[in-house]
C-alpha cells in the first residue's frame, strides 16, 4: 500500500527548515561570500524569523537585549541617515537674494537668471527657482516679456502704501505699548541707546538691525506680535530707499534722533507725544523718496 503523502503545510515547513539549516551551516563555515545575493537575503530572513520565534518562546527575563547578532542587525535596524530638508537651502537662498535686493546690491531694473544665481551661490536651480517665486509674490522680482526676470523698480505709489500700512499698525501698537510694564519699556529704551551708539561709530548694518529690533519691540509690547509680519514686509520695500539715503541724505542719523524722542515718550507713558513722534518718524521716508528718485530716476517706475 502506498505511503500517505505529507500535508502541504508539513512540506513547506520541511523546506523552510532545510533552507534554514543550509544557511546556518554556511554561517559556521565562512563561505557566505560565495552565495548569490538572492540566496543571502532569503537565508538571512529565514534565519532571523527562526531566531524571533526562538526568543519569543523564552521567558522575558532570559531574553538577550537584541534578538539578532549585531552583524545581522545593523543593516536592517540602523536608522537611515536623512539629508536636511530642501526648504532649509531654499530659505537660505531666499534670504540672501532678498537681502541683496533690499541692499541694492541687485539694483532695481537689473536682469537676473536662475542659472546665474545658482552658479554664484553654488546651489542647484531648484531652491533659486523657489526663491524667485517667493520674491515675485512679495513684489521684489517680476517677469518682463523678452527680457526675463528682473529686480522690480521702486514705485512711489507702492511706497506710499507701505507708509500707510506702517503708520496704521505701529501707531495703534504704540497706544497699547504705553500700558506695558515699566521694566519692559525701559528695556526698549536701552535698545535705542545701542542703536544710537552703532550710528555714532558708523556701523551702518548694526544700526539698521537695532532700528528694526526697536520697531519690532514696540509691536511686541502692544501684545500683538503677529502684527509685525505686515510691517516687516512694508519696511522691506522702504528699506531700499533708506539704504540709498544713508550716504546721500544721512538718514540714519535723523532716524536715531527721532528714536530717542520715541523711546523717551514710551518710558514716560506719554501716548500723545509717542504717537506724534512715531508718525513723524515714519513719514520721514517721504522726503527720502523724493531725494533718491531725483538722484536715481532709473530706479523708479513712476
Shape: globular
Order of helices and strands: HHHHEHHEEHHHHHH
Please state how the strands of the largest beta sheet are arranged side by side. Answer: 1-3-2
Q: CATH topology of the domain at 156-299, which one?
A: Four Helix Bundle (Hemerythrin (Met), subunit A)
Distance between the termini: 107 Å
CATH superfamily of the domain at 156-299: GntR ligand-binding domain-like
| Number of helical stretches of at least 4 residues | 12
How would you sum up this structure, described in words?
By secondary structure, this protein is mostly helical. Among the domains are: 86-151, Arc Repressor Mutant, subunit A (Orthogonal Bundle), CATH 1.10.10.10; 156-299, Up-down Bundle (Four Helix Bundle (Hemerythrin (Met), subunit A)), CATH 1.20.120.530. It contains twelve helices and three strands; from the N terminus they run ααααβααββαααααα. The protein has helices spanning 8-28, 37-56, 70-77, 86-102, 114-121, 125-137, 156-177, 182-200, 204-222, 228-249, 251-267, 271-295, and strands at 111-112, 141-144, 148-151. Strands 1-3-2 form a three-stranded antiparallel β-sheet. A hairpin with a 3-residue loop joins β2 and β3 (148-151). The longest helix has 25 residues, at 271-295. The radius of gyration is 34 Å and the shape is globular. Mean pLDDT is 79; it is low at 27-42, 52-56 and 65-84.
Amino acid at each position: 500500500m502506498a505511503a500517505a503523502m505529507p500535508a502541504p503545510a508539513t512540506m513547506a515547513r520541511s523546506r523552510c527548515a532545510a533552507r534554514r539549516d543550509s544557511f546556518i551551516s554556511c554561517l559556521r563555515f565562512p563561505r557566505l561570500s560565495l552565495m548569490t545575493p538572492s540566496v543571502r537575503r532569503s537565508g538571512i530572513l529565514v534565519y532571523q524569523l527562526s531566531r524571533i520565534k526562538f526568543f519569543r518562546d523564552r521567558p522575558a527575563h532570559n531574553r538577550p537585549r537584541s534578538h539578532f547578532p549585531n552583524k545581522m542587525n545593523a543593516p536592517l535596524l540602523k536608522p537611515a541617515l536623512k539629508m536636511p530638508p530642501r526648504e532649509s537651502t531654499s530659505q537660505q537662498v531666499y534670504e540672501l537674494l532678498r537681502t541683496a535686493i533690499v541692499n541694492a546690491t541687485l539694483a532695481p531694473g537689473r536682469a537676473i537668471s536662475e542659472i546665474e544665481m545658482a552658479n554664484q551661490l553654488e546651489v542647484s536651480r531648484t531652491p533659486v527657482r523657489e526663491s524667485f517665486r517667493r520674491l515675485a509674490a512679495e513684489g521684489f522680482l517680476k517677469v518682463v516679456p523678452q527680457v526675463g526676470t528682473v529686480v522690480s523698480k521702486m514705485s512711489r505709489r507702492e511706497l506710499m502704501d507701505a507708509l500707510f500700512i506702517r503708520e496704521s499698525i505701529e501707531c495703534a501698537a504704540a497706544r497699547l505699548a504705553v500700558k506695558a510694564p515699566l521694566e519692559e519699556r525701559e528695556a526698549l529704551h536701552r535698545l535705542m541707546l545701542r542703536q544710537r551708539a552703532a550710528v555714532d561709530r558708523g556701523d551702518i548694518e548694526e544700526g539698521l538691525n537695532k532700528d528694526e529690533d526697536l520697531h519690532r519691540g514696540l509691536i511686541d509690547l502692544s501684545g500683538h506680535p503677529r502684527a509685525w509680519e505686515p510691517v516687516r514686509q512694508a519696511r522691506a520695500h522702504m528699506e531700499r530707499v533708506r539704504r540709498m539715503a544713508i550716504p546721500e541724505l544721512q538718514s540714519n542719523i535723523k532716524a536715531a534722533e527721532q528714536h530717542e524722542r520715541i523711546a523717551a515718550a514710551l518710558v514716560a507713558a506719554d501716548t500723545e507725544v509717542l504717537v506724534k513722534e512715531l508718525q513723524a518718524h515714519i513719514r520721514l521716508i517721504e522726503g527720502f523718496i523724493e531725494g533718491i528718485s531725483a538722484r536715481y530716476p532709473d530706479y523708479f517706475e513712476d
